[in-house]
Amino acid sequence: MAPRVRSALVSVGALALVALLWEVATRLHLPGTGNVAPLSVVLAQFFTRLLDGSFIVALFWTLLRMLGGYGVSLGIGLPLGIALWRVRWLRDSFGLIVPGLHGMPAIVWLPLLSIWLGASQATVVVIVVLASVMSITRGTMDALAQVPQLHTRAGRMLGANGWRLYRFVLLPSAMPGIVAGMKQGWAFAWRGLLGAELIVTGLTGVGPILRLQGVSEGDRIAVLLAAMLLVCLFSVCVDRFVFESIEGRLLKQRGLHPHGEAA
Amino acid sequence: MSQPEPGQEALRSAGIERRLEEALTLEAHELAGVPEVKVEHSVRRGEADVLIELAGVTQKYAGEGGGPGRVALEAVNLRIFKGEFVCLVGPSGCGKSTILNLIAGFMQPSEGRVLYKGRPIAGPGPDRAVMFQDHALFPWLTVQRNVEFGLKMANRHERQIRKKVARNYLAMVNMAGHEREYPHQLSGGMRQRVALARSLALESDVLLMDEPFSALDPTTRDMLHEQLQRIWMETKKTIVFVTHSLKEAIRLADRIVLMGTNPGRVRREIAVDIARPRELNSLALDEINIVLRRELQNEHRPQLPLEMPGLEFNI
Question: I need a surface site. Which of A19, B152, B180, B268 has the fewest CB within 10 A?
């Protein structure tokens, strides 16, 4: 059996086992499962809300904020990372801000942003930017710092100067590290975004569903779990189909294995 | 040029061997009193034929944390002529790679001048192709695109013509058919051949080679020596080749520049006037090599602690 097929079967099997335990435990009303809806009920909620469009609309708005904020982060983070790597006085003067901002959970900004911008789309989008921009900046900086001297020398010897050295040698050489920073930035942004959506009122999105606006008493737990399932599935999809696939391609091209030679 | 008799060749190579041996066995202080051997060239060369010149070049590397630095080269004078194949040979720490890096423009001399066509070298450029010890191919590009890279940077030729030029050079190093592969899919010898094709595609006057074949197995190396000789005879490039293998130097060079350590300097220059193409066995190179290697070992065993004071504890 091909290793890919086998590892797919193993993960499906493990998921099926968890699902079965969940369903049986809640149906038998085992102690401690009183506040857990059976999986079948959760899945029913999930598909109902997917089909009536409410999950789609919520995900659309959340994703729109995400892409807007993340796009701004890319626009700032990549050039900033290059500049900080290249220009010594910039690194000396602003160098500390990068780890400072990077280490701070973006949600900490929310109270201040609420005063400045109110409970608005802008507040949430700025949270997304603040959550992700330093991951991208740092990823770019660190990846450039690790470009082998040999690549730089070979590039210059072959006539790549100025921006062409960046365009054709430094950035391609640093690309795996830059993508790793982008991946981390996306994860941080996603956390910041849902945190902000949970708190900021008056928006449409996945966060407001988790706040159970207009959900009847009896459905609450099933809706919560269904919305969490949505968030979880979406995160996995982005990770697998966007970042893992880009990283996998980059590494494979260079003869590197994402999980080591053994995999 | 008429092909000399094998017997004559052996005699001549024995002469070179003796001169190399002499130079290697002399200690630094003994050398100081000995007048320099005049280098005989098969063709007399004048000022106008000087392509690369190092004049009074001293190169110092800064020490760790402001400590005493290391003098890689001291007061080195060296001229390299148009179309010449020069090998720089010497033990590690003699500054042979430093000379190459200076000519390539990767570093600037602490003192003295490094001139190319009479002008100081400001930085690296496609007029001086470099082949590194490690292939230094770009892992994200296919073989084809690696070889094309220099042409693309120079905006020379259309895309289609670039492709053809790259294919020609790949064929020249026997790498036709591997265009679409990535460097990691190739063996070490194949990668070095692609790196050679990439350097040749620049169509530069000068080719600088820094121990390019040292990591390869003897059979591959022998084949590449043959190809390199053929390419040099066809293109008449000026080649500066760094190696620590005397055998390699005797096989390839018009002139061997023998270097010494502590500080790095030129000890002796020896002309090699054996007819080309030189083949591995016709010259009894193995025998010469055994003798020379023994001498080289004798030369730098007692000097080792002096050469690398910082490494004494690791030996």
Answer: B180
Selected residue of B142, B149, B185, B196 to mutate for chain A interface (largest A Cβ count, 10 A)? B149
Residues of chain A with C-beta less than 8 angstroms from the C-beta of B136: 150-151, 153-154
R_g of chain A computed on alpha carbons: 23
Chain A / chain B CB contacts < 8 angstroms: 66
A129 within 8 A of A69, measured Cβ to Cβ: yes
Number of domains in chain A: 1
Residue recorded with tokens 């017997």: B7
pLDDT(B3) > 80: no
Each residue of B157-211: pLDDT tens digit? Answer: 788 899 999 999 999 888 999 999 999 999 998 999 999 999 999 999 999 999 9
> How many CA atoms, within 13 angstroms, populate the side-chain half-sphere of residue B24?
24
**Phi, psi at residue B53, to the nearest 5°?**
-140, 130
3-state secondary structure of B39: coil
As a whole-number percent, the residues of chain B with pLDDT over 70 amount to 73
Distance to chain B for A172, nearest Cα, Å? 7
Q: Is the ipTM above a cut-off of 0.85? A: no
Q: Rounded to a whole number, what is the distance in Å from the CA of A175 to chain B's nearest CA?
A: 10
B82-124 pLDDT, tens digit per residue, is: 999 999 988 888 899 999 999 999 999 999 999 999 999 999 9
- Specify the amino acid at residue B64: E
Dihedral, A50, A52, A58, A63 alpha carbons, nearest 10: 60
The single residue listed with the structure tokens 């450029």 is B125
Residue B285 to residues B8, B89, B279, B297: CA-CA distances in angstroms? 14, 16, 9, 18
For residue A151, what is the domain's CATH number? 1.10.3720.10
Using CA atoms, how far apart are residues B92 and B300, in angstroms rounded to an integer?
Answer: 9
- Measure the CA angle with vertex B106, ends B100 and B107; round to 5°: 90
In a domain, A15, yes or no: no
Which residues of chain A does B130 touch, with a Cβ-Cβ cutoff of 8 Å? 153-154, 157
Q: Given pLDDT bands bounded at 50, 70 and 90, which one contains residue B33? A: very low
